[in-house]
Amino acid sequence: MGLLLIACDLRRAGLTADDLLLYGLRRFCGRDTLPAIARASGGKPFFPQCPEIHFNLSHSGPFLLLGLADTPVGVDIEVVRPRRPSLPRFALTQEEYALFCQNGGGWKEFYLLWTVKEAYCKYTGDGLSRPSRLVVPDDIPRKPFSDGTFCAAAVCDSLERGSQLCWISPTPDGGAGIEDKISRACPQIRQTKPNGPGSSAASGRTLK
After folding, report:
1. Strands of the sheet with 73-79, listed across from one edge
2. What is the number of structural domains in the chain?
3. 134-145 burial, b if ≥16 CB within 10 A, otherwise e?
């Protein structure tokens, strides 16, 4: 099973993407150090010393999404916000645009489709070099999801057992260490979710 972590307001807690990555590695495989990171020709980051661990990161607004797995993984997250009205028709394929309209034509519906495209590009390692009208093959597992209001995201992977999704919203805590801050913010997986940016809840569910 893979691990997906969505962190909100890390900067307010004095934390960085590397801090979340190290925390994720501890939960995913018990590592206590962050391996060296390199980038493939398409820009995808990887651990050259730990090729059995795959990861991917995406950032938008206050949200940071981390995906960890033992097979290739690509993730994308976007803050749900209005854009120019012509964007959905330009960025989506004809079939996707029809689905977008069928589902209500709102910005959340657009981002749920768009994040799948970006997650797929990151899954393959091609990055954003592909055109916006990219068609994601039907046989590629894709898992779009949303918090319902503030963000939309997607993961592409080949995990048969799915990925555990955990929401984390750490809060500033004086002189506490990085691991202490995040551990206290997410001491265990609970079946609730944060109420949006600034909340301090942690939650978990399985995406399949």
Report:
1. 73-79, 151-157, 142-146
2. 1
3. bebeeeeebbbb
- With CA atoms as reference, report the closest residue to 156 among 186, 126, 191, 192: 126
Structure tokens at 97: 């645009």
Q: What percent of the chain has pLDDT over 70?
A: 76
Which CATH number covers residue 72?
Answer: 3.90.470.20
- Residues 72, 1, 121, CA angle at the centre, nearest 5°? 25
Query: Tokens 């090729």 appear where?
Result: 51
Per the structure, the complete domain to which residue 89 belongs is given by 2-207
Q: Is the pTM of this model over 0.70?
A: yes
Name the average pLDDT for the chain.
81
Q: Which of 4-8, 76-80, 159-163 reaches the highest mean pLDDT?
A: 76-80
Separation CA 123–CA 172 (nearest Å):
33
| pLDDT class of 129 with cuts at 50, 70, 90 | low
